[in-house]
Design a protein that fits this description.
binds magnesium ion; six-stranded antiparallel sheet; binds adenosine-5'-triphosphate; 366 residues
Protein backbone atom coordinates (compact mmCIF):
# COMPACT_ATOMS: atom_id res chain seq x y z
CA UNK A 1 0.00 0.00 0.00
CA UNK A 2 1.06 3.58 -0.52
CA UNK A 3 0.20 6.86 1.12
CA UNK A 4 -0.77 9.45 -1.50
CA UNK A 5 -0.95 12.39 0.85
CA UNK A 6 -1.24 13.43 4.45
CA UNK A 7 -2.66 16.69 5.73
CA UNK A 8 -2.97 18.31 9.11
CA UNK A 9 -4.52 21.19 10.90
CA UNK A 10 -3.66 22.15 14.50
CA UNK A 11 -1.43 19.10 14.92
CA UNK A 12 1.63 19.72 17.17
CA UNK A 13 3.78 22.48 15.58
CA UNK A 14 2.89 21.57 11.98
CA UNK A 15 1.36 24.28 9.82
CA UNK A 16 -1.93 23.58 8.08
CA UNK A 17 -0.90 21.89 4.85
CA UNK A 18 -1.15 18.84 2.61
CA UNK A 19 1.93 16.81 1.72
CA UNK A 20 1.98 14.60 -1.38
CA UNK A 21 4.28 11.63 -0.95
CA UNK A 22 6.32 9.72 -3.52
CA UNK A 23 5.56 5.98 -3.69
CA UNK A 24 9.22 5.20 -2.97
CA UNK A 25 11.49 7.06 -0.54
CA UNK A 26 10.42 10.31 1.12
CA UNK A 27 13.07 12.11 3.12
CA UNK A 28 12.15 14.88 5.56
CA UNK A 29 15.22 16.78 6.61
CA UNK A 30 15.71 19.74 8.87
CA UNK A 31 17.34 20.96 12.04
CA UNK A 32 16.35 19.77 15.48
CA UNK A 33 12.90 20.72 16.79
CA UNK A 34 11.39 21.66 13.41
CA UNK A 35 8.57 19.07 13.20
CA UNK A 36 10.09 15.99 11.52
CA UNK A 37 9.05 13.51 14.20
CA UNK A 38 5.66 15.23 14.47
CA UNK A 39 5.11 14.44 10.79
CA UNK A 40 5.92 10.75 11.26
CA UNK A 41 3.73 10.74 14.35
CA UNK A 42 0.77 12.07 12.34
CA UNK A 43 1.02 9.12 9.93
CA UNK A 44 1.37 6.64 12.80
CA UNK A 45 -1.76 8.18 14.32
CA UNK A 46 -3.75 7.44 11.16
CA UNK A 47 -2.44 3.89 11.22
CA UNK A 48 -2.94 2.89 14.85
CA UNK A 49 -5.23 5.59 16.22
CA UNK A 50 -2.69 6.68 18.81
CA UNK A 51 0.72 8.31 19.09
CA UNK A 52 3.91 6.31 19.47
CA UNK A 53 5.14 8.94 21.95
CA UNK A 54 2.25 9.58 24.32
CA UNK A 55 -1.05 8.15 25.51
CA UNK A 56 -2.37 11.63 26.12
CA UNK A 57 -4.03 12.77 22.88
CA UNK A 58 -4.31 16.33 24.16
CA UNK A 59 -0.55 16.74 23.83
CA UNK A 60 -0.96 16.31 20.08
CA UNK A 61 -3.14 19.39 19.68
CA UNK A 62 -1.25 22.60 18.96
CA UNK A 63 -0.79 24.65 22.13
CA UNK A 64 -2.81 27.53 20.74
CA UNK A 65 -5.66 25.43 19.23
CA UNK A 66 -8.54 23.50 20.74
CA UNK A 67 -8.79 20.88 17.98
CA UNK A 68 -6.59 19.08 15.51
CA UNK A 69 -7.33 17.08 12.38
CA UNK A 70 -5.02 14.69 10.55
CA UNK A 71 -6.09 13.11 7.26
CA UNK A 72 -4.36 10.48 5.24
CA UNK A 73 -5.32 9.29 1.77
CA UNK A 74 -3.81 5.99 0.79
CA UNK A 75 -4.11 3.39 -1.94
CA UNK A 76 -4.57 -0.30 -1.45
CA UNK A 77 -4.95 -3.01 -4.07
CA UNK A 78 -8.70 -2.76 -3.92
CA UNK A 79 -8.86 1.03 -4.08
CA UNK A 80 -8.48 4.35 -2.35
CA UNK A 81 -9.10 4.79 1.36
CA UNK A 82 -8.88 7.68 3.74
CA UNK A 83 -8.52 7.96 7.47
CA UNK A 84 -9.32 11.07 9.45
CA UNK A 85 -8.43 11.58 13.08
CA UNK A 86 -10.11 14.41 14.98
CA UNK A 87 -8.47 15.39 18.24
CA UNK A 88 -9.77 17.80 20.82
CA UNK A 89 -8.47 19.21 24.09
CA UNK A 90 -11.81 18.66 25.81
CA UNK A 91 -13.42 15.71 24.01
CA UNK A 92 -12.25 12.22 23.18
CA UNK A 93 -10.83 11.61 19.71
CA UNK A 94 -12.90 10.59 16.71
CA UNK A 95 -11.71 8.23 14.01
CA UNK A 96 -13.25 8.13 10.55
CA UNK A 97 -12.61 5.62 7.79
CA UNK A 98 -13.86 6.80 4.41
CA UNK A 99 -16.04 9.29 6.26
CA UNK A 100 -17.63 6.66 8.52
CA UNK A 101 -17.20 7.06 12.25
CA UNK A 102 -15.43 4.11 13.87
CA UNK A 103 -16.82 3.44 17.36
CA UNK A 104 -13.67 1.62 18.48
CA UNK A 105 -9.97 2.29 17.89
CA UNK A 106 -9.49 -1.43 17.19
CA UNK A 107 -11.62 -1.02 14.04
CA UNK A 108 -8.95 1.18 12.53
CA UNK A 109 -6.26 -1.50 12.76
CA UNK A 110 -5.37 -3.28 9.55
CA UNK A 111 -6.44 -0.46 7.21
CA UNK A 112 -3.32 1.68 6.93
CA UNK A 113 -0.50 -0.62 8.01
CA UNK A 114 2.76 0.97 9.08
CA UNK A 115 5.96 -0.25 10.64
CA UNK A 116 7.56 2.39 12.81
CA UNK A 117 11.18 2.74 13.78
CA UNK A 118 12.62 5.48 16.00
CA UNK A 119 15.99 5.64 17.81
CA UNK A 120 14.28 4.14 20.88
CA UNK A 121 13.37 1.05 18.85
CA UNK A 122 16.89 -0.24 19.36
CA UNK A 123 15.49 -1.34 22.71
CA UNK A 124 14.00 -4.34 20.89
CA UNK A 125 17.57 -5.57 20.76
CA UNK A 126 19.37 -4.17 23.79
CA UNK A 127 16.74 -3.70 26.50
CA UNK A 128 14.36 -5.91 28.46
CA UNK A 129 12.22 -8.88 27.34
CA UNK A 130 9.17 -6.61 27.80
CA UNK A 131 10.39 -4.50 24.86
CA UNK A 132 10.69 -7.57 22.63
CA UNK A 133 7.26 -8.84 23.66
CA UNK A 134 5.85 -5.41 22.91
CA UNK A 135 7.33 -5.69 19.42
CA UNK A 136 5.59 -9.04 18.95
CA UNK A 137 2.30 -7.83 20.39
CA UNK A 138 2.10 -4.67 18.30
CA UNK A 139 2.83 -6.55 15.08
CA UNK A 140 0.61 -9.48 15.74
CA UNK A 141 -2.27 -7.20 16.73
CA UNK A 142 -2.02 -5.47 13.34
CA UNK A 143 -1.72 -8.76 11.48
CA UNK A 144 -4.24 -10.86 13.28
CA UNK A 145 -7.43 -9.64 14.96
CA UNK A 146 -7.72 -12.95 16.87
CA UNK A 147 -4.36 -12.25 18.48
CA UNK A 148 -5.60 -8.81 19.55
CA UNK A 149 -8.71 -10.28 21.20
CA UNK A 150 -6.79 -13.18 22.81
CA UNK A 151 -4.23 -10.71 24.20
CA UNK A 152 -6.86 -8.48 25.77
CA UNK A 153 -8.68 -11.47 27.31
CA UNK A 154 -5.33 -12.81 28.57
CA UNK A 155 -4.40 -9.46 30.17
CA UNK A 156 -7.79 -9.18 31.88
CA UNK A 157 -7.61 -12.74 33.23
CA UNK A 158 -4.03 -12.21 34.46
CA UNK A 159 -5.02 -8.98 36.24
CA UNK A 160 -7.93 -10.80 37.92
CA UNK A 161 -5.63 -13.65 39.00
CA UNK A 162 -3.07 -11.19 40.38
CA UNK A 163 -5.77 -9.27 42.28
CA UNK A 164 -7.03 -12.52 43.79
CA UNK A 165 -3.51 -13.58 44.81
CA UNK A 166 -3.27 -10.40 46.88
CA UNK A 167 -6.72 -10.91 48.43
CA UNK A 168 -7.44 -12.84 51.60
CA UNK A 169 -10.20 -14.99 50.12
CA UNK A 170 -10.93 -18.28 51.90
CA UNK A 171 -11.45 -20.27 48.71
CA UNK A 172 -8.38 -18.80 47.07
CA UNK A 173 -7.17 -21.94 45.31
CA UNK A 174 -10.58 -22.66 43.69
CA UNK A 175 -11.12 -19.05 42.68
CA UNK A 176 -7.65 -18.75 41.18
CA UNK A 177 -8.21 -22.06 39.37
CA UNK A 178 -11.01 -20.49 37.31
CA UNK A 179 -8.59 -17.91 35.95
CA UNK A 180 -5.84 -20.53 35.46
CA UNK A 181 -7.97 -22.25 32.85
CA UNK A 182 -8.60 -19.04 30.89
CA UNK A 183 -4.99 -17.86 31.18
CA UNK A 184 -3.74 -21.25 29.94
CA UNK A 185 -6.13 -21.27 26.96
CA UNK A 186 -5.44 -17.66 25.90
CA UNK A 187 -1.74 -18.00 26.73
CA UNK A 188 -1.48 -21.05 24.46
CA UNK A 189 -3.06 -19.06 21.61
CA UNK A 190 -0.58 -16.20 22.13
CA UNK A 191 2.42 -18.55 22.36
CA UNK A 192 1.54 -20.48 19.22
CA UNK A 193 1.00 -17.32 17.20
CA UNK A 194 4.21 -15.74 18.54
CA UNK A 195 6.25 -18.86 17.75
CA UNK A 196 4.85 -19.03 14.24
CA UNK A 197 5.52 -15.31 13.75
CA UNK A 198 9.18 -15.68 14.87
CA UNK A 199 9.71 -18.69 12.62
CA UNK A 200 8.29 -16.87 9.63
CA UNK A 201 10.12 -13.64 10.44
CA UNK A 202 13.53 -15.33 10.75
CA UNK A 203 14.44 -15.94 7.08
CA UNK A 204 13.33 -12.42 6.13
CA UNK A 205 15.30 -10.83 9.00
CA UNK A 206 18.37 -12.88 8.09
CA UNK A 207 18.22 -11.70 4.49
CA UNK A 208 17.85 -8.05 5.54
CA UNK A 209 20.70 -8.20 8.07
CA UNK A 210 22.89 -9.82 5.45
CA UNK A 211 22.01 -7.18 2.83
CA UNK A 212 22.59 -4.19 5.13
CA UNK A 213 25.89 -5.63 6.42
CA UNK A 214 27.06 -6.60 2.89
CA UNK A 215 26.98 -10.30 3.75
CA UNK A 216 29.04 -9.95 6.94
CA UNK A 217 26.39 -10.79 9.52
CA UNK A 218 24.14 -13.76 10.11
CA UNK A 219 21.16 -12.96 12.36
CA UNK A 220 19.38 -15.65 14.33
CA UNK A 221 16.30 -15.47 16.51
CA UNK A 222 14.57 -17.84 18.86
CA UNK A 223 11.34 -17.49 20.85
CA UNK A 224 12.07 -18.37 24.48
CA UNK A 225 8.90 -19.75 25.98
CA UNK A 226 7.68 -20.54 29.50
CA UNK A 227 6.25 -23.95 28.52
CA UNK A 228 6.96 -26.63 25.96
CA UNK A 229 4.58 -28.13 23.43
CA UNK A 230 3.69 -27.98 19.76
CA UNK A 231 -0.10 -28.04 19.69
CA UNK A 232 -2.56 -25.68 21.40
CA UNK A 233 -3.71 -28.52 23.64
CA UNK A 234 -0.18 -29.50 24.71
CA UNK A 235 0.77 -25.91 25.50
CA UNK A 236 -2.49 -25.15 27.36
CA UNK A 237 -2.12 -28.33 29.48
CA UNK A 238 1.52 -27.58 30.34
CA UNK A 239 0.61 -23.93 31.03
CA UNK A 240 -2.18 -24.86 33.45
CA UNK A 241 0.08 -27.31 35.27
CA UNK A 242 2.76 -24.64 35.60
CA UNK A 243 0.23 -22.21 37.14
CA UNK A 244 -1.04 -24.89 39.54
CA UNK A 245 2.50 -25.92 40.54
CA UNK A 246 3.43 -22.31 41.24
CA UNK A 247 0.26 -21.49 43.18
CA UNK A 248 1.83 -21.40 46.65
CA UNK A 249 4.81 -19.28 45.69
CA UNK A 250 2.54 -16.98 43.62
CA UNK A 251 0.42 -16.43 46.77
CA UNK A 252 3.56 -15.63 48.78
CA UNK A 253 4.72 -13.08 46.20
CA UNK A 254 1.25 -11.74 45.47
CA UNK A 255 1.45 -12.03 41.69
CA UNK A 256 1.74 -14.57 38.85
CA UNK A 257 5.46 -15.17 38.39
CA UNK A 258 5.53 -17.39 35.33
CA UNK A 259 3.78 -17.26 32.01
CA UNK A 260 3.97 -15.85 28.52
CA UNK A 261 3.91 -12.34 30.03
CA UNK A 262 7.61 -13.10 30.78
CA UNK A 263 8.62 -14.75 27.46
CA UNK A 264 11.46 -13.38 25.35
CA UNK A 265 13.11 -13.48 21.92
CA UNK A 266 16.81 -14.34 21.85
CA UNK A 267 18.82 -12.60 19.13
CA UNK A 268 22.25 -13.60 17.86
CA UNK A 269 24.59 -12.05 15.29
CA UNK A 270 27.21 -14.45 13.97
CA UNK A 271 26.37 -16.78 16.87
CA UNK A 272 26.88 -14.18 19.62
CA UNK A 273 24.15 -12.63 21.78
CA UNK A 274 23.73 -9.26 20.11
CA UNK A 275 22.40 -7.66 23.30
CA UNK A 276 25.66 -8.41 25.11
CA UNK A 277 28.25 -8.31 22.35
CA UNK A 278 26.80 -6.35 19.42
CA UNK A 279 28.24 -2.95 18.45
CA UNK A 280 25.83 0.02 18.23
CA UNK A 281 25.65 -0.32 14.45
CA UNK A 282 25.09 -4.08 14.65
CA UNK A 283 22.35 -3.64 17.22
CA UNK A 284 20.74 -0.91 15.13
CA UNK A 285 20.99 -3.11 12.04
CA UNK A 286 19.44 -6.08 13.87
CA UNK A 287 16.55 -3.96 15.11
CA UNK A 288 16.01 -2.58 11.59
CA UNK A 289 16.26 -6.09 10.13
CA UNK A 290 13.41 -7.21 12.39
CA UNK A 291 11.30 -4.23 11.38
CA UNK A 292 11.92 -4.57 7.65
CA UNK A 293 11.36 -8.31 7.92
CA UNK A 294 8.06 -7.44 9.50
CA UNK A 295 7.03 -5.46 6.40
CA UNK A 296 7.94 -8.43 4.21
CA UNK A 297 6.00 -10.85 6.38
CA UNK A 298 3.00 -8.52 6.24
CA UNK A 299 3.30 -8.50 2.50
CA UNK A 300 3.45 -12.28 2.38
CA UNK A 301 0.38 -12.61 4.57
CA UNK A 302 -1.75 -9.81 3.16
CA UNK A 303 -0.41 -9.32 -0.36
CA UNK A 304 0.45 -5.69 0.43
CA UNK A 305 3.47 -4.09 2.03
CA UNK A 306 3.00 -1.70 4.95
CA UNK A 307 4.65 1.71 4.92
CA UNK A 308 7.97 1.94 6.74
CA UNK A 309 8.32 4.97 9.01
CA UNK A 310 11.96 5.61 9.92
CA UNK A 311 12.54 8.43 12.38
CA UNK A 312 16.14 9.51 12.73
CA UNK A 313 17.70 6.09 12.17
CA UNK A 314 20.66 6.91 9.94
CA UNK A 315 23.02 8.47 12.45
CA UNK A 316 24.60 5.27 13.78
CA UNK A 317 24.96 3.56 10.40
CA UNK A 318 27.98 3.90 8.12
CA UNK A 319 27.33 5.10 4.57
CA UNK A 320 27.36 1.56 3.09
CA UNK A 321 24.71 0.44 5.56
CA UNK A 322 22.66 3.60 4.97
CA UNK A 323 22.69 3.03 1.22
CA UNK A 324 21.72 -0.65 1.54
CA UNK A 325 18.91 0.24 3.94
CA UNK A 326 17.42 2.90 1.71
CA UNK A 327 17.43 0.57 -1.30
CA UNK A 328 14.48 -1.19 0.34
CA UNK A 329 12.43 1.73 -1.00
CA UNK A 330 12.40 -0.23 -4.28
CA UNK A 331 10.09 -2.67 -2.53
CA UNK A 332 8.04 -0.46 -0.22
CA UNK A 333 7.21 3.13 0.57
CA UNK A 334 9.50 4.69 3.17
CA UNK A 335 9.04 7.90 5.12
CA UNK A 336 12.36 8.90 6.65
CA UNK A 337 13.53 11.82 8.77
CA UNK A 338 17.11 13.04 9.16
CA UNK A 339 19.03 16.08 10.32
CA UNK A 340 21.90 15.48 7.90
CA UNK A 341 21.69 14.09 4.39
CA UNK A 342 24.28 12.19 2.48
CA UNK A 343 22.75 12.42 -0.98
CA UNK A 344 25.00 9.67 -2.30
CA UNK A 345 23.12 7.20 -0.10
CA UNK A 346 19.77 8.11 -1.66
CA UNK A 347 18.33 6.07 -4.52
CA UNK A 348 16.78 7.57 -7.68
CA UNK A 349 13.22 8.94 -7.42
CA UNK A 350 13.68 9.95 -3.76
CA UNK A 351 11.55 12.93 -2.81
CA UNK A 352 13.36 15.31 -0.46
CA UNK A 353 11.41 17.71 1.76
CA UNK A 354 12.66 20.43 4.06
CA UNK A 355 10.98 20.90 7.45
CA UNK A 356 11.37 24.32 9.02
CA UNK A 357 9.32 25.61 11.96
CA UNK A 358 6.51 23.22 11.16
CA UNK A 359 6.41 24.18 7.48
CA UNK A 360 7.16 21.45 4.95
CA UNK A 361 8.41 22.28 1.44
CA UNK A 362 9.56 20.08 -1.44
CA UNK A 363 13.26 20.55 -2.01
CA UNK A 364 14.13 18.10 -4.74
CA UNK A 365 13.08 14.92 -6.52
CA UNK A 366 16.10 12.81 -7.45
N1 LIG B 1 1.23 20.39 21.03
C1 LIG B 1 2.21 21.11 20.49
N2 LIG B 1 1.95 22.35 20.01
C2 LIG B 1 2.95 23.10 19.45
N3 LIG B 1 4.21 22.66 19.32
C3 LIG B 1 4.53 21.46 19.78
C4 LIG B 1 3.55 20.61 20.38
N4 LIG B 1 4.14 19.46 20.74
C5 LIG B 1 5.44 19.58 20.40
N5 LIG B 1 5.68 20.78 19.82
C6 LIG B 1 6.97 21.30 19.31
O1 LIG B 1 7.24 20.72 18.06
C7 LIG B 1 8.63 20.94 17.81
C8 LIG B 1 9.15 19.91 16.86
O2 LIG B 1 9.16 18.62 17.45
P1 LIG B 1 9.70 17.34 16.69
O3 LIG B 1 9.80 16.30 17.72
O4 LIG B 1 8.88 17.03 15.50
O5 LIG B 1 11.14 17.82 16.24
P2 LIG B 1 12.16 17.16 15.22
O6 LIG B 1 12.18 17.97 13.97
O7 LIG B 1 11.86 15.72 15.09
O8 LIG B 1 13.53 17.39 15.98
P3 LIG B 1 14.77 16.39 16.30
O9 LIG B 1 15.66 16.43 15.10
O10 LIG B 1 15.39 17.04 17.48
O11 LIG B 1 14.21 15.06 16.61
C9 LIG B 1 9.29 20.95 19.18
O12 LIG B 1 10.01 22.13 19.34
C10 LIG B 1 8.14 20.89 20.16
O13 LIG B 1 8.31 21.77 21.23
MG1 LIG C 1 12.73 14.04 15.89
Amino acid sequence: MKIDNVSFQGFRNLETQQIDLAPTLNVFCGDNAQGKTNLIESIYLCSLGRSPRTDNDKELVNWSCDNAVVRCNFSRKFGQLNVEVNLSKNKSKKLLLNGNLLPKVSQLLGNLNTVYFSPQEIKIVNQSPADRRHFLDVDLCQLDKNYFFALSRFKKALTQRNNLLKSESENLQDEVGVWDEQIAQEGATLILKRKEFCQQLKPFAQAVQSKISQGEELLNLHYLCCVEGDSHEQIATAYKKMLEDNFQSDVERGYTQNGCQRDDILLFVNGKDVKKYGSQGQQRTAALALKIAETQLFEQRTGESPILLLDDVLSELDSKRQKALLEFSNQLQIVLTACFLNKESLPKSTKIFKVEKGNVTIQEIL
